[in-house]
């Protein structure tokens, strides 16, 4: 598997206000997905693994708020950290996930985003591709709604 990194600077840009480091990963269907393809929408970049108890409890709620908020230009991009694609496929099927499910078996993107060992880790990225917030741990519908309302793109 190849991973393609694109960044504006030599260092890792994971600070609030910086352009989110771009990357390409395969989704659970084998399609290559590039983070920058979601520009124009608010992105919840959700790092998870199936051994994480919080992730298992959070997944159904994540699907619920994605269903409610995707019309407000929210895109959820779930990145499985360090596991085989089959685990992500089973998770997607079990929880009827309709958002993007990507796999990072070598943990390259998790390292790029300084995720560490404690999951889940959530990054919010605005329509211009800049990081607006990092939340370590569970993300609720209310948090997502507040972030969406505070970061509506100007038209």
Sequence-ordered SSE layout with sheet pairings:
Elements: E1 4-6, E2 22-26, E3 32-34, E4 42-48, H1 53-69, E5 74-81, H2 85-95, E6 100-104, H3 108-112, E7 121-125, E8 131-136, H4 141-150
Parallel strand pairs: 4-5, 5-6
Antiparallel strand pairs: 1-2, 2-3, 4-7, 7-8
Distance between the termini: 39 Å
Number of strands: 8
Low-confidence stretches: 1-13
> Numbering strands along the chain, what is their spatial order in the largest sheet?
6-5-4-7-8
CATH class: Alpha Beta
Offer a few descriptive terms.
three-stranded antiparallel β-sheet; globular; 155 residues; disordered N terminus; 28% helix; Glutaredoxin; alpha/beta
Short note summarizing the structure:
Helix 2 links the parallel strand 5 (about 75-80) and strand 6.
Detailed description of the structure:
With 155 residues, the protein is an alpha/beta fold. It has one domain: 3-Layer(aba) Sandwich (Glutaredoxin). Helices cover 28% and strands 27% of the residues. It has helices at 53-69, 85-95, 108-112, 141-150; strands at residues 4-6, 22-26, 32-34, 42-48, 74-81, 100-104, 121-125, 131-136. The strands form two sheets. It has a five-stranded mixed beta sheet with strand order 6-5-4-7-8. Strands 1-2-3 form a three-stranded antiparallel beta sheet, with no helix packed on it.
């Amino acid at each position: 598997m190849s991973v393609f990194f694109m960044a504006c600077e030599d260092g890792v840009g994971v600070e609030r206000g910086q352009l989110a480091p771009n990357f390409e990963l395969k989704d659970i269907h084998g399609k290559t997905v590039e983070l920058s393809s979601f520009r124009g929408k608010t992105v919840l970049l959700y790092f998870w693994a199936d051994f994480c108890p919080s992730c298992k409890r959070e997944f159904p709620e994540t699907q619920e708020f994605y269903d409610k908020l995707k019309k407000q230009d929210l895109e959820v991009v779930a990145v499985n950290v360090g596991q085989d694609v089959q685990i992500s496929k089973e998770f997607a099927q079990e929880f009827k996930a309709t958002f993007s499910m990507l796999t990072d078996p070598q943990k390259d993107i998790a390292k790029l985003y300084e995720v560490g060992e404690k999951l889940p880790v959530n990054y919010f990225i605005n329509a211009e591709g800049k990081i607006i917030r990092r939340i370590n741990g569970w993300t609720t519908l209310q948090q997502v709604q507040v972030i969406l309302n505070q970061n509506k793109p100007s038209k």
